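ok new one. same drill as before - structure tokens go in, u give me an amino acid for every spot. 331 of them this time. try not to just spam alanines like last time pls lmao
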């Protein structure tokens, strides 16, 4: 919708630009317009309130929630600062504004309000100051009753403080990334080590490209560069030997990802699933460093279930095949 893009672009050039956005699942047009505005001004303050489905074990409804997250992820990962905040509620958004039950999306800027109908064929635009302040006030009231969809950590150390907590949960933990980070991570942080020692098993998915890159450079991409120094060549091989030993002991289960199934796993992306409710995503590139924890439980559960399914699927090598490969590359 062109008018959405125009309003967002106008707000992006304001010194105190602030966008409030209410929307339903599947409204891709609004998200695309939001991307344009944030490209023009990465410092633009954006608060977004979305309606999610109460899944109650329904895979169909979980899929709808995941599709919503898929629309949000490009913006979440592209924003270096904590100026894009997404809140969720299990209600149809128009119920928040009782006077306009037929609307499915509201875009509120500092000077205008756009009310959009369900199929994006009609909209009403208000520019009167009192009207804008009224809608902004209602939005702010709803935000106070909603929950953050994810928690962003600017400092990677905050991830360990907020995510890795002592617990009696002994269910398997999963990690997916380019490199098999676990053994180094256990040595890296004492609190993390204590947490993972309680798990019955740690299952890791990684790529051949990631392992080869580690052996060549000594860098572990999953750990921020400011907290880590590259290992010497012999230490790199020793780390692989340690991983093999852990696999043979049964506490660590390594799986190479089948590259034909994944095509090209994103560089710098790591997903840790400590339990069904504790999911943290790391994204490190030369331009962006992002760490965030998924707060909404149905989404967190989808990540964990996918990791469980992967374990016996054709998308990964068996443990025996993976260990044999690791032994070959350090000969």
């Amino acid at each position: 919708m062109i008018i959405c893009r125009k309003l967002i672009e106008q707000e992006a050039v304001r010194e105190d630009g602030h966008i409030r956005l209410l929307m339903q699942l599947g409204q891709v047009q609004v998200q695309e317009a939001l991307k344009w505005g944030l490209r023009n001004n990465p410092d633009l303050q954006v608060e977004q309130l979305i309606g999610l489905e109460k899944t109650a074990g329904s895979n169909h409804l979980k899929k709808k929630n995941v599709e919503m997250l898929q629309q949000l992820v490009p913006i979440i990962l592209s924003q270096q600062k904590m100026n894009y905040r997404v809140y969720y509620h299990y209600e149809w958004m128009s119920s928040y504004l009782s006077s306009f039950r037929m609307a499915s999306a509201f875009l509120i800027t500092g000077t205008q309000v756009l009310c959009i109908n369900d199929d994006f064929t009609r909209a009403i635009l208000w520019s009167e100051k009192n009207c804008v302040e009224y809608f902004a006030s209602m939005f702010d009231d709803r935000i106070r009753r909603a929950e953050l969809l994810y928690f962003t950590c600017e400092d990677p150390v905050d991830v360990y403080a907020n995510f890795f907590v002592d617990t009696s949960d002994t269910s398997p933990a999963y990690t997916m990334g380019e490199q098999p980070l676990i053994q180094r991570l256990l040595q890296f942080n004492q609190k993390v080590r204590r947490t993972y020692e309680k798990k019955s098993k740690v299952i890791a998915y990684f790529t051949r490209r990631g392992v080869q890159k580690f052996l060549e450079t000594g860098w572990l991409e999953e750990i921020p560069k400011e907290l880590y120094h590259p290992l010497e060549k012999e230490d790199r091989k020793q780390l692989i030997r340690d991983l093999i030993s852990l696999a043979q002991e049964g506490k660590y289960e390594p799986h190479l990802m089948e590259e034909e199934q994944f095509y090209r796993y994103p560089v710098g992306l790591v997903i840790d699933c400590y339990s069904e409710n504790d999911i943290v995503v790391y994204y490190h590139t030369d331009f962006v460093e992002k760490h965030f924890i998924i707060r909404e439980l149905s989404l967190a559960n989808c990540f964990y279930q996918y990791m469980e399914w992967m374990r016996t699927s054709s998308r990964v090598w068996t443990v025996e095949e993976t260990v044999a490969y690791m032994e070959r590359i350090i000969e």
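The longest strand covers residues 45-51. and btw The radius of gyration is 22 Å.
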